[in-house]
Amino acid sequence: MTVRTRIAPSPTGDPHVGTAYIALFNQCFARQHGGQFILRIEDTDQARSTPESEQAILDSLRWLGLEWDEGPDVGGEYGPYRQSERRDEYRAYAEQLVESGHAFYCFRSPEELDAIRDARREQGLNPGIKGDLELPADEVRRRMDAGEPYVIRMKVPEEGVCEIEDMLRGTVTIDWTQIDCQILLKSDGMPTYHLANVVDDHRMGITHVIRGEEWINSAPKHRLLYDYFGWDMPTLCHMPLLRNEDGTKLSKRKNPTSIDLYERLGFMPEAVLNFLGRMGWSMPDERERFTLDEMQAEFDIHRVSLGGPVFDQAKLRWLNGLWIRETLTDEAFMDRVGDWWFSRDQLAPLVPHLKSRVETFSDIAPMASFMFSGMLDVRPEDFQHRKLEEETVRRILQFALWRLEAERHWSRDTVFADLKALAGAMGLKLGEFMFPIFVAVAGTPNSWSVVDSMGLLGPDVSRARLRHALNVLGGFSKKQAKKVEKEYAALETGE
RNA sequence: GUCCCGUUCGUCUAGUGGUUAGGACACUGCCCUUUCACGGCAGUAACAGGGGUUCGAGUCCCCUACGGGACGCCA
């Protein structure tokens, strides 16, 4: 049997280091066994999936040096590799389960579902949707004929236990009472993760599912689906979750998680991948620096340790420095730096700003240094303004950050539109409103259009600098945060 | 609230019954050096706690504590 593994990102946001982490281990496992590594796009969430995000994820994973044998961009015999293009298939499988008595149509309203959850919680049960949900056949037919929206839910045993075999943890036992009647087909006709994942993994011949630990509790649902269909279940392996410094699951609120940010800050892809390979894993000889090829050659999934590793920026920076010093010739260094940011393509958009302002070429360095930096060394006094209270400054930064975090299409124009609307909603003059944004992003109010700068710097760096500025100013206490959040919500709806 | 998973220096880890518990980042000191960085050397620092099993437990078992995760028509 040929080993086949996969990474199945959901194109709903910025390329995440966690995705790359899981992809890395899947690729290593497949290569080590002479098998194939597949990339599949799980875009069943119609509301949140975007083509831009999909492209960004593919680009980022490829930037890191990962290579999949099959995928939406490279093709393969098991396509299509985009779940939105397989939608009819899932429906057929879901209906097959209804016919075989393993699933049923469900018409419950959100209010009814909430009531079920509350009732179960009160009884000290897991609040998942479960119990007497099925309707008589004629009632189902009547409601369907009437055009009522429905979902298909899987049936789950009321008692007994489900045993899951995990490559690293051995047998995990989960009581069936903990497992809810999972929705398989949503009312929009799209499958949920659980159905689509099982169907695709089977249809694509996936033999080993290496995924994050967050999935371990839903493994019984998957086990059950494989049984209902009469399919062999792939071997499961749940990786530890990457953590923030405080031990919680890695999140962009507390850590830079976007692969693009590391690219923009001038990390070498080899170093980032190397660092991810040191998360929960080590080489047999414990060397710190190794290439993807070396990792693949020495790979052993059983060397994964289960404690959730903290994603330590300091060590990543050290490792990147090591890569620069030890692996780059002077020629390669020049090429890398040139490609990174000082290429003609990168510089071109800056020329209009620079040419009109400099008297000598040497004026460029201090003027444009913020365009080539990571976090800026800003101080609270830099944000003092003769007309703006510090409270207002903090609100401007916070609101701008929230607004820009919600922005899906990043460009000079969208950023400008966002900020202008926000300034209007806050009743501030655009010039005053922009002051703290200038300081946060450019380090000084005396620069060219900060909106242009943000367009060029990209969402990750721009947002990170706003966040940094907010921290420098002390941020908001928990109490204040609630109030400020309310104010922001009011601004948003009031427009 | 219910359940699941985890727990070696601050952090990343080595360790699969017998080790002075090793390495790396960070930190501190010294050396190199016009400075800084790099490099070299040295130092501080860990088996969560309690019970077993065993001649012997970081390693095996149980309990407790702590941490994390899941409980969505998100994945």
TrEMBL record:
Motif extent ('KMSKS' region): 249-253
GO biological process: glutamyl-tRNA aminoacylation
CDD domains recorded: GluRS_core (cd00808)
Name of one Pfam family that matches: tRNA-synt_1c
Compartments where located: Cytoplasm
Motif 'HIGH' region: where in chain: 9-19
Ranges annotated as spanning the membrane: none
GO molecular function, one term: ATP binding
PROSITE patterns, alphabetized: AA_TRNA_LIGASE_I
Catalytic activity: tRNA(Glu) + L-glutamate + ATP = L-glutamyl-tRNA(Glu) + AMP + diphosphate
InterPro entries documented for this protein: aa-tRNA-synth_I_cd-bd (IPR045462), aa-tRNA-synth_I_codon-bd_sub2 (IPR020751), aa-tRNA-synth_I_CS (IPR001412), aa_tRNA-synth_I_cd-bd_sf (IPR008925), Glu-tRNA-ligase_bac/mito (IPR004527), Glu/Gln-tRNA-synth (IPR000924), Glu/Gln-tRNA-synth_Ib_cat-dom (IPR020058), GluQ/Sye (IPR049940)
The family this protein is said to belong to: Belongs to the class-I aminoacyl-tRNA synthetase family. Glutamate--tRNA ligase type 1 subfamily.
Record text on subunit structure and interactions: Monomer.
PANTHER family linked to this entry: GLUTAMATE--TRNA LIGASE (PTHR43311), GLUTAMATE--TRNA LIGASE, MITOCHONDRIAL-RELATED (PTHR43311:SF2)
Function: Catalyzes the attachment of glutamate to tRNA(Glu) in a two-step reaction: glutamate is first activated by ATP to form Glu-AMP and then transferred to the acceptor end of tRNA(Glu).
Protein name in UniProt: Glutamate--tRNA ligase
Annotated source species: Vreelandella halophila
Gene that encodes the chain: gltX
